[in-house]
Amino acid sequence: MLYRESGQFKTSYKADMAIFPIRQDLWGLITTLIVAVVIVPLFASEHMIVGYLLPFMIWSIAAIGLNILTGYAGQLSLGHGAFMAVGAYSAYNLAVRIPDLPLLAVFIGAGLIAAACGVVVGSPSLRIKGFYLAVATLAAQFFSEWVFATFPWFVGGAASMVIDTPKMSLFGYPIESNLDNYFLVLGFVIVTTLLAKNLVRSEIGRAWMAVRDMDVAAEVIGIRPLYTKLSAFAVSSFFAGIAGALYAFCYVKSVDFTAFDLFVSLKVLFMIIIGGMGSILGCFLGAAFIVILPILLNVAAHHLTGGNVSPELITNIEHMTFGGLIVYFLIVEPHGLARMWTTAKEKLRLWPFPH
Amino acid sequence: MNVSDPILELENISLSFGAVHALADVSFSIYPGEVLAIIGPNGAGKTTMLNVINGVYHPSEGKINYKGQARARMRPHQTAVQGIARTFQNVALFKGMNTVDNIMTGRNLKMNTNILLQALYWGPAQREEAVHREAVEKVIDFLEIEAVRKTVVGRLPFGLQKRVELGRALAAEPEILLLDEPMAGMNLEEKEDMCRFVLDVNEEFGTTIVLIEHDMSVVMDISDRVVVLDYGRKISEGTPDEVRGDQRVIDAYLGVAH
Question: What is the total count of domains within chain A?
Fold first, then answer.
């Protein structure tokens, strides 16, 4: 099957602006959805779901959030972990303090509270840019860690500061098994991806990219810089908040501020750099690279050595291989894995007659 | 408003950056429907003048009247709302976006659906996209850049980038169009194309055009009036023929014998 759009004619601008204007892309998406909804639940092991797919999907949502802010709107942020923490703690407090609140409202409320924090943290972005903004957002990271470590109110006065999340149920159906959690997270992945894709192809998405590429020209053509930057912060933090809440409720099943430290912010940043700035697909590729590859390396290392080598050595080799792969991919394609895919698609359009 | 009333009046504009007087006591008017050229040697303050007109810089002294009303200190996006669009000396396109999206940004002021509807890409948001896409396609037709409409503009040759940038400004349907060296770095053929587009815009849409240009043959051919700046001061103003004969202009360009 060749990746080629010849013969697919558009007769309206609406068709031309469809979310996947090329039919092959649509098929690819449908196949992925079928795999995710039907094949995975039928055949995947518990280990596969909990070990690989849940973290992959949750980190993908977080990466989409940061990619909107950094990849699309061009505002470098090191505070993404803070917004995830705000999301997790907000979801916990909403669920515990308002017992009758429906689960979806809990998650959306957590996203909205994170978005509000994002707007506050992002407000200096009108004046400061680039690395200086990154440092300003770093303040949010340290501040959130300090707040959640210092005030027991956020965990309902618990002494341990680490607290289990309450039981969840959606429309009266309890969410207990790993598969239930998988479906809940999958639902959020599908919806957030769709929302993000819609935003970046709409007027607001063009405004974000305009501010990223040439902010003076953007303002001269009538784009309001403050609104554009703050909306990017809000949307980005909204996604981060939902990802943080899902991480706490569906994956680790506890709320713990140490789970959202600076390394988390860096990890998400690595994901979008390796996956591809300004690409929704890149968020998934980057999340897969950062989350799944180390596990695969671990499995491979154990198989190859057959248990004769000390575990410390294996761990070191894994880290070195992982670092080496990051460097390799960034040298081969500095714009990320998504760009590799784009280039491959362009080649496929012409293959096998390149002229 | 009388036809002969100026659309924009600049009165005694002065602007300094530290000790550098970029503009000193410059006054001139822009009349609706005309093609006004601003010329002058390098560093004369031409681009600074455009930046003052569209609010990137604020004059330290002087007054700007737009359609007879004194204009308060304005941000660039507010002047865009008033109907002033521009292109830049060094192409300032959004390099990561394709041609259609670049020109679509020119329509942003006319798009009103809120961010939630855009996120859902539903109903009004979708209809609005299609309506403005149609307007953008008209601009693409007009500038004859159909072949590159889905190309990322960073990959386009310089001449086409300039054309896309003009398209972005045109998509805003401005009343005043400021062009900062639209022909710089172009070959003869591209210059002729660009002249044709500028004149067509002026005639078909009645857009007032203010352009900065170094190519004197272009200036003399297409402009109705010329303002000459030198060291931040206005040294001459008039029709191309008047300016050409002005001794101060000749001195500014060729130097004075000592």
Answer: 1
- Interface predicted TM-score (ipTM) of this complex, two decimals: 0.89
**Which amino acid belongs to residue A108?**
I
**Least confident stretch, A74-78, A337-341, B35-39, B101-105:** A337-341
Q: Where are the domains of chain B?
A: 1-83+174-258, 91-173
**pLDDT band with cut points at 50, 70 and 90 for residue A63:** very high
Question: What token pair was written down for B114?
Answer: 């809120």
CB atoms B111 and A278 under 8 Å: no
Q: How far is A213 from chain B (nearest CA, A)?
A: 5
Assigned domain for A145 exists = yes
Residue A203 with chain B: CB contacts under 8 Å: 104, 108, 111, 113, 118, 128-129
Find the closest chain B residue to A14 by CA distance.
B130
Average pLDDT along chain B: 89
Residue A254 covered by a domain: yes
CA–CA distance, A323 with B30 (Å, rounded to integer): 61
Question: What's the burial of B17, exposed, middle or buried (CB within 10 Å: 0-12/13-18/19+)?
Answer: exposed
Residue A136 in contact with residue A78, Cβ under 8 Å?
A: no
Return d(Cα A19, Cα A21) in angstroms, integer.
Answer: 6
Encode pLDDT of B68-99 as tens digits. Answer: 888 888 888 889 999 999 999 888 999 989 99
Given a contact cutoff of 8 angstroms between Cβ atoms, the answer to whether A111 and A239 are in contact is yes
Taking an 8 Å cut-off on Cβ atoms, the answer to whether A219 and B106 are in contact is no
Orientation of helix A178-200 relative to helix A225-246, angle to 10°: 170
Instruction: Give domain status of residue A1, yes or no.
Output: no
CATH code of the domain in which A163 resides: 1.10.3470
Interface test with A, best of B94, B109, B114, B175 (most A CBs within 10 A): B94
Residue A1: band (very low, low, confident or very high) from pLDDT cuts 50, 70, 90: very low
Query: Do B93 and B164 meet the contact criterion of CB atoms below 8 Å apart?
Result: yes
Please state the CATH superfamily assignment of the domain spanning residues B1-83+174-258 in this structure: P-loop containing nucleotide triphosphate hydrolases (3.40.50.300)
pLDDT digits over A126-163, tens only? Answer: 888 888 999 999 999 999 989 988 887 887 777 676 77
Closest by alpha carbon to B85, among B193, B169, B201? B169
Closest to A25 (Cα-Cα) out of A286, A337, A355, A348: A348
Task: Compare CB distances from B94 to A195, A198, A213 and report the shortest one's residue.
Answer: A213
Taking an 8 Å cut-off on Cβ atoms, the answer to whether A217 and B129 are in contact is no
Interface check for B95 against chain A (CB to CB < 8 A): the answer is yes
Q: Of B20, B86, B19, B52, whose CA–CA distance to B232 is shortest?
A: B20
Q: How far apart are the first and last CA of chain B?
A: 49
Structural domain boundaries, residue A122: 44-350
Examine residue A352 and say whether the peptide bond preceding it is cis (omega within 30 degrees of 0).
yes
The minimal CB distance from A198 to the residues B96, B118, B168 is found for: B118
Q: Is residue A66 part of a domain?
A: yes
